Amino acid sequence: MYSDKVMDHFSNPRNVGEIENADGVGEVGNAHCGDIMKVYLKVENDIITDVRFKTFGCGAAIATSSVATEMIKGKTIDEALKLTNKEVVESLEGLPPAKLHCSVLAEEAVKAAIEDYKKKLGA
Amino acid sequence: MNKRVYMDHAATTYTKTEVLQTMMPFYTELFGNPSSVHQFGREVKKHIDTAREQIAKALGALPEEIYFTAGGSEADNWAIKGIAYANRKKGNHIITTKIEHPGLLESCKYLEKEGFEVTYLDVDEYGLVKPEDVERAIKENTILISVMYANNEIGTIQSIAEIAGLAKERKIYFHTDAVQAVGSIKIDVKEQNIDLLSLSAHKFYGPKGVGALYIRKGVKIISILHGGHQERGRRAGTENVPGIIGLGKAIEIAVNTMDENAARIKALRDKLIQGVMEKVPYTRLNGHPEKRLPGNTSFCFEFIEGESLLLNLDIKGIAGSSGSACSSGSLDPSHVLLAIGLSHEIAHGSLRLSLGDINTQEDIDYVLEVLPPIVDRLRQMSPLYERVKGGK
Ligand SMILES: Cc1ncc(COP(=O)(O)O)c(C=O)c1O
Ligand SMILES: [Zn+2]
User: Does B333 touch chain A (CB under 8 A)?
Assistant: First the structure.
């Protein structure tokens, strides 16, 4: 059902965990629909130097969380904001159609964390 | 090769070698059409009659009350729609429960669109239907009560005789979906006042795609599959002969070995339940502690999601199932888990391990070794668990 790439990220998820005193934190989804993703960012000079995630969800949710964090690490905030659900799915070599909705969370969680970072900057 | 442990017998079982051996000649030398007049047909017809007798004997029914179908779903569809349309003049109200199999629930929903009225009864926290709720739901125009014998997800066994008795007193037909129960627990349709009963061979070590509907003599029902005169004019289509032969053999073996098998599987089941509950914190057992199918275990592990648990178990060779939304492909978790009062969040973390006659103590030990660290690892990456640990 899942590609080898999905199973790789699912069985060995990258960047799992939390960041203490993170510069930005975003949490999206809810337990009602079955997937929650939380992203922590460390930002230095506008560049994402570290990123961690925690996810409650299915195989697709965990794999997209993992690959999305890999894709934005080392990127500037503006670059990371351009991350799309489509790119995440493509880098996983596709997802079953019924699982596409689970992958939207990754994009949303990254955006929420960046928003939080910007808010903290402004404050 | 890696270790493989199959604990999804509620989804389907393997076909026993003995069963398969009785089926094989019906693909080759005994190929006649049982409706044919010649001896090729007649000899096959004889064997179909034997299978019908084997099923009747297993259920305490008469052979002429057994009708072959293409499985449990067809039997459910036939029972519900067949009774509804045949008795429409008498009334249009049907009573069933919220925890039925989709084969039954979707038939009821279809009938609602056709102008029938359906009451879906609640169940208690163990998944039990209260007979007094059935009684209260009965109306002047009630024509059918359908309550599943045992639930496929949580294994709860209903008080069938009591509920069927209520129906009988009021001259209302009583149907039970016994797909999960047949072959595992003792059933007697006459003693229990059951008018219609659905069964499916692949749940008791028979072949897939074949089942039966027991229809008590005198029950008014219409056909839903029209055509030839097979099954005494009630269910058209050339018989799935090898399947029917296999069904007969499988049910005979299941009933003959029931006591011994049930005791052995039940002992393994209880060890598994006890072990999981001891080793994994924040876990609940779904279903009834005693009124439970011999092979069923069903758990909810808080803070994690069922599909990711299944995938991790699968990597370790363990086959189970889950009622989480993401494993079912819908947005909602299992209707059964919601009906027993679980929140969406808890229901997403469900795991069913259903045991069968191939499982051993070694399998239980293996699951108890592999499962707890998987649950723990998923919890460590769950934002929900983090809140609990943080005391929030
Ligand atoms: C309770 C119950 N009813 C009906 C069915 C459907 O049976 P079948 O797969 O033979 O159509 C099943 C099997 O999944 C079941 O568990
Ligand atoms: Zn999902």
Answer: yes
Residues B241 and B311 in one domain: no
Judge if B131 and B203 occupy the same domain.
yes
Instruction: Based on the fold, state whether residues B333 and B214 are members of the same structural domain.
Output: no
CB contact under 8 Å between A34 and B386, yes or no, is: no
Domain span holding position B325: 5-13+258-389
| Facing residue for B308 by CB, picked from A36, A37, A58 | A58
The Cα–Cα gap between B177 and B180 comes to 8
Cβ contact B217:B75 at 8 Å:
no
- Residue in chain B lying closest to A35 (CA): B305
Q: Is B156 in the pocket of ligand 1 (CB under 6 A)?
A: no
Q: Is B179 in the pocket of ligand 1 (CB under 6 A)?
A: yes
Q: What is the ipTM of this complex?
A: 0.94
Q: Does ligand 1 lie within 6 Å of residue B73's CB atom?
A: yes
Q: Which residue has the tokens 């592999």?
A: B370
What tens-digit pLDDT sequence spans chain A (123 residues)? 899 999 999 999 999 999 999 999 999 987 777 789 999 999 999 999 999 999 999 999 999 999 999 999 999 999 999 999 999 999 999 999 888 888 889 999 999 999 999 999 886
Cα(B179) to ligand 1 centroid in Å equals 6
For residue A31, give the nearest of B326, B331, B384 by CB distance. Answer: B384
Please tell me whether residues B72 and B154 are part of one structural domain: yes
Span from the CA of B73 to the centroid of ligand 1 (angstroms): 6
Please check whether residue B216 is in contact with residue B253, taking contact to mean a CB–CB distance below 8 angstroms.
no
Q: What are phi and psi of B204, to 5 degrees?
A: -130, 50
How many structural domains compose chain B? 2
Inter-chain contact B311–A59, Cβ cutoff 8 Å? yes
Separation between Cα atoms, residue A106 and residue A111, nearest integer Å: 9
- Out of B213, B240, B256, a domain closes at B256
Q: Where are the domains of chain A?
A: 4-121
Phi, psi of B114 (to 5 degrees): -90, 5
Query: Both B342 and B362 in a single domain?
Result: yes
Q: A4-121: what fold?
A: Sufe protein. Chain: A (3.90.1010)
